[in-house]
Amino acid sequence: MASLARALAAVSLAASIGSADAYTASNCKNLPGDAGWPSASAWSKLNATLKGQLIATVPQAHVCHTLPSNSFNANACDELQSTWTQAETYVPKPAEILNAYFQNQSCDPFTPISRSCELGNYASYSINVTTAQHVAAGFDFARQNNVRLVVKTTGHDFMGKSTGKGALSLWMANLKEKTIIRSYSNPNSTYKGPAIKLGSGVIAGEADEFVGANGYRVVTGECASTGPVGGYTQGGGHSLLGGAYGMAADNVLEWEVVTPQGDHVIATPSSNSDLYWAISGGGGGTYGVVLSMTTKIYPDGKVATGSLSFTLAGSGSAGNDETAFWQGVNLWFQSVPGFLGLKQGTVGSENATMLSQITNSSFDLLGITFPDQTVTQLQNTLAPYLDGLKALDINYTFSTTQQPSYVQSFNQTRGLGPLPWGVIPTTEVWASRLVPVSFVENTTAVASLVDVYRSAVQDNAFSVGCNVLGGFNAPAHPDNSVFPGWRDLAVICNVLHQWDFTAPLDTNLSFKRRLVSDVQPAVEAVTPGTGVYLNEMDPWYEGDWKTEMYGVNYDKLLSIKHKYDPDSLLWGLFAVGGDESTLDANGRLCRV
């Protein structure tokens, strides 16, 4: 308890600096400094109930500042600066915020040493969750003390659900179960194949390596630091394996959940089926806290992979004319139905996935992935596109490899591997758009979209990442709340901006304003009615989020939300029911 007491003192000092005024309105959550904020003895009592699992937040970048605790350490600060963009710096630690916007420079290693390290948007306390009882205790404390509650699995979170000023955080990182089930058995399920039970704290890279060592594959994210059991799968979950096996949510057999009322339940398509339906695609941290997930796995095997790139003249020895360059980009979008075998006369594969990066001077296919197929099949699929590039007189580089397993193919994909952590994206400013097959079959529509993206990247402020992720409607799966726009998807595209941690905050925020006010509306204007991905969107998004993220599922999801969380203990920006509360100017969560 002594170490907790020392940490409490540090938190109290930082909180006193960060919260200048008290506010006790009954419709708002308490913040440190408010009259209703729990006393030190109340926090100590909670810690006793948890048998010592309560952690007071001291931001790790306190070593880069002299205030408020005179803890500056030059060597430690230098080390932290060198790893600040790496997932390992945040994911395994309580309360740490991965997203730069929500860090808000309240305590980071790049601001002046003399600037005070404040909690800002950091949760005030975390519960190191290892049992269902810990989650129930967190819910009870938050309800009884009118304190905001958040859930952090990995914190790979662009919408700020996993953190919050003055919050009590349920930190799930140490739920590390990984159990292979060779033959899944449930009397109400027709599925009898292999499965895996994963604890909430397992990251995608750990899951991939574990199942790979046992001769299997599992649907996880392209970013290895995502949490398969957390917001990734609960929000839908696209994958390099998605063409073959569907969305991550399509593969879930069971969810182990603690509801906000404290009930510890198993949700399946036949038991607590409404909760299963909602959690399988309707967004993380909204309906309950998931302790574990049981999901399908698949026999591992060969994977054909490849990469392709071409550039503008002046960007390399084989650069191309600007008009031809953008014609090549346009042709790539038009070729997607052929890649997926949906165009008459083409040799394609619904299993195919491709990750592309478009800048003002380069086009790269970084992750061409054909599971259970040969290099010859991959080459035959891309042959019509390569012929088209030749007809445009575009110089390009193209290579292929045959890998014996999915993990080996992932590790060899530039920009993704190596596992278990992979490469964290530093693109902290981004906005997504789902592009259906019917759209890329329309040459006029494609030309309009490419023109918008060309305009967005022209000054090198943004890049565009597009993933070919077809086939999501093919695998049979239980009914779930995955956004319907995924079912006829051809491509998901994100407009991206690299966050500069050494620049003034206003400089980075100016790119956010440009993205949400100019670029994203232009993208949506030429792609009406298609939708966005709820896990990949800027928190300043100005669109009709209920329609664009949830569509026809929203009303049913809201009903389930109200059933299981009548006190609205779980809240997130753009989460179902998210408009029933709001953050005030001081970061205080209030009902509206």
TrEMBL record:
Residues 119-300 form the FAD-binding PCMH-type domain. GO terms for molecular function: FAD binding; oxidoreductase activity. InterPro entries: BBE, FAD-bd_PCMH, FAD-bd_PCMH-like_sf, FAD-bd_PCMH_sub2, FAD-linked_Oxidoreductases_BP, Oxid_FAD_bind_N. Residues 1-22 form the signal peptide. Coiled coil: none annotated. It comes from the Eukaryota. The keyword Hydrolase does not apply. Keywords: Oxidoreductase, Signal. PROSITE patterns: FAD_PCMH (PS51387). Pfam families: BBE, FAD_binding_4. PANTHER family: FAD BINDING DOMAIN PROTEIN (AFU_ORTHOLOGUE AFUA_6G12070)-RELATED, GULONOLACTONE OXIDASE. Belongs to the oxygen-dependent FAD-linked oxidoreductase family. This is FAD-binding PCMH-type domain-containing protein. It comes from Trichoderma harzianum CBS 226.95. The lineage of its organism: Eukaryota, Fungi, Dikarya, Ascomycota, Pezizomycotina.
